[in-house]
Specification:
Layout: H1 15-24, H2 27-38, H3 45-52, H4 56-68, H5 94-102, H6 108-119, H7 125-137, H8 142-160, H9 168-181, H10 186-209, H11 219-231, H12 235-249, H13 254-266, H14 272-278, H15 283-291, H16 304-330
Helix pairs in contact: 2-4, 6-8, 7-9, 8-9, 8-10, 10-11, 11-13, 12-13
């Protein structure tokens, strides 16, 4: 049975455990072992990941190292009954933030300095609480928070002018959006920002394509352009949808154009050729249109003019027949 070598209620390390960890040069295993010492040897993966700011893979690798060194059995603590999620972040105090800033191992002090540099101001207590919410409650890595702040600054200045800066409360709001989207690693943040940059570029291009004057888009319009971009439609197809919209509505209608594009996307039609081939009317109507003939009308009365013409022709034939009959009788 592997040993945790726990020395009782005092948080200290048995020399044998220290020797094994140092000989292995296993830094993550040593950190996890310290966490286990602090928590009575019971491994709770969620709590350990949050405290050590690791992802699941890193935790699994550290557990495997401890198992191989005979310092853990790798078993997790039984899951406790689910606790209702709090309505929001903790009500952080100035003392909480001061304690984090003074901690010698925390990355938060460096993050504060970098955010102040990017925003060009000293953060107030309220600002620090917003920043600490991103760091502690949302558990976003410091590098991701820096990318978030830079993106918010760029967007704010693009919308309101050079030199204007967002408030930390606005940065926090965007941070919640990132967290919901799973943008919680540097790689995910870089991919997200690359996508957002593409959407931003397409907004201006598509406005011009739709004969719209340059202007800031409302959120509803931004979402539609992002969706069209994700669907993979190029400019030519977007112009086709726009012209169909104007022909039908006599003006630009974002919802109507979106309906056209969503319909094409559901049919997997994404190029002009695919749309021309796959969005044609039914064959019978198409054939009639191609030949110039009118489709046969089943079970419908003839138009009044046609009926009158046929009646007159029948009468003329009948009169001619009667004339021939009379002539034969007289002859």
């Amino acid at each position: 049975m592997p040993e945790l070598l726990l020395p009782g209620n005092i948080i200290s390390m048995d020399a044998r455990a220290a020797d094994r960890l140092m000989a292995a040069g296993a830094g993550d295993a040593a950190l996890l072992y310290l966490w286990l010492l602090r928590h009575g040897g019971q491994l709770s993966p969620d709590a350990a990941r949050k405290a050590l700011k690791w992802d699941g893979q890193r935790l699994e690798e550290a557990v495997a190292q401890l198992v191989s060194l005979g310092l853990s059995d790798g078993k997790s603590q039984p899951e406790a009954a689910p606790v209702p999620a709090p309505a929001g972040p903790p009500d952080y105090t100035a003392a909480d933030i001061a304690r984090e800033i003074e901690a010698g191992t925390s990355t938060f002090p460096g993050l504060v300095n970098e955010v102040q540099r990017r925003l060009g101001k000293v953060l107030s207590t309220a600002d620090l609480k917003s920043l600490y919410t991103l760091y502690d409650y949302l558990a976003l890595p410091a590098e991701v928070i820096c990318l978030l702040v830079s993106w918010c600054v760029e967007e704010f200045q693009r919308k309101y002018g050079e030199g204007r800066m967002p408030r930390m409360s606005q940065v926090l709001k965007e941070g919640y959006a990132w967290q919901r989207l799973g943008v919680d690693t540097v790689q995910a943040a870089e991919a997200h920002l690359k996508r957002q940059s593409l959407y931003r570029t397409r907004e201006g291009e598509i406005l011009k394509l739709l004969d719209q004057r340059p202007r800031p888009l409302v959120e509803k319009e931004k979402k539609k352009i992002a969706a069209w971009t994700d669907m993979g439609f190029d400019d030519q197809v977007l112009r086709m949808a726009y012209e169909k919209t104007v022909y039908k509505k006599q003006r630009m209608d974002w919802d109507y154009m979106n309906g056209i594009l969503v319909g094409w996307h559901k049919k997997n039609l994404h190029t002009p050729a695919e749309i021309e081939a796959g969005d044609k009317p039914p064959r019978t109507v198409q054939s009639a249109a191609a030949t110039g003939a009118k489709p046969a009308m089943q079970d419908h009365p003839s138009a009044p003019g046609d009926a009158d013409r046929r009646v007159r022709e029948d009468l003329e034939r009948m009169r001619a027949f009667l004339r021939r009959q009379k002539e034969e009788e007289e002859g």
